[in-house]
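Usage

Read records sequentially. Each one opens with the input sequence:
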Amino acid sequence: MDLKFRPTRKRALALATLAASMTAVGIAYGAIPDGNGVYSACMLKATGTIRLIDPALPSSNLLSHCTTWEKLVSWSSVAGGLPGKDGTNGKDGAPGPPGTNGTNGTDGAAGLPGKDGTNGVTGPAGPKGDKGDTGSPGSQGPAGSSTGGSLEALAGTPCGAAGGKRGVTKIEYQIDANSDAIALTCSHPADVKELDIWGRSTPFVVPPECMGAEAPCVIPYAVGQVTVSPADVNGKSGCSFHLPQALEAQGPRDELACTLQYDSGTTVTLTIAATAGTFVGWGIPPADAAFSGTCVTETANTCVVTVNANLAATAAFTSP
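and closes with the structure output:
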């Protein structure tokens, strides 16, 4: 920290003498005072004598700095003294009132069109629309060839009664160019088996009102529903019966309700529900059925079968 020096009459006389002597010997101090009008001097601590120095000189020059027996002093030749240090910042003043809104600027020029965005994900399908009006009939096609005459003229019947239509997944045909004969080829999947479900109405005793030739007689019907689990390969989950009851002398009546297809080895549970008549149990398929079979396990209204071959199951009913 610089020492503030207060010149006395003695010290002023000494400074004047020192300045005059330096002028007399021809010493030039181009940097005394410095550019701000400040004089730098070294005061001997023991006696108080001072000597001017030029801090701008090289440090090796004795006239550029004070020794250990001296203290640096400085004063200004400018009226008013050296500028003081900056004071601490004052507290912020209170906010001023809001200014008035400025006028709106003019609209800028329109920007360039942006790039197209990426396509969004496809939304869910909407509900099915109403059925359209039936179109007008098309024009009649050309007359076909008269060669062949009937279906009996087909070369072979692999998909007919002899070969069986059941389980057919593919039918191919080929027409002979010379004779117009049609050859059919049917494909049957080896790993798909069929399950026939039969309904049977058991005989009933003719009531007295049916004995007279002119007496009215209502033949009752047995109505039932069979559900299967799981559904077959085509999504069918069951079938229904509507069987007229047989007269006692005629024996039972059988009806093929539906044919289901399953992958070989599938275990299927059949559940019966009667809405008219009474379910009396699971029976053996009729003699003219294409397949035979019995339940592996059976309860009051269920039958479990394993479709590892073409099978049949029969549900028997009595009259309502």
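Summary fields computed downstream for this record:
- Confidence is low (pLDDT under 50) at residues 18-29, 146-167.
- The radius of gyration is 62 Å.
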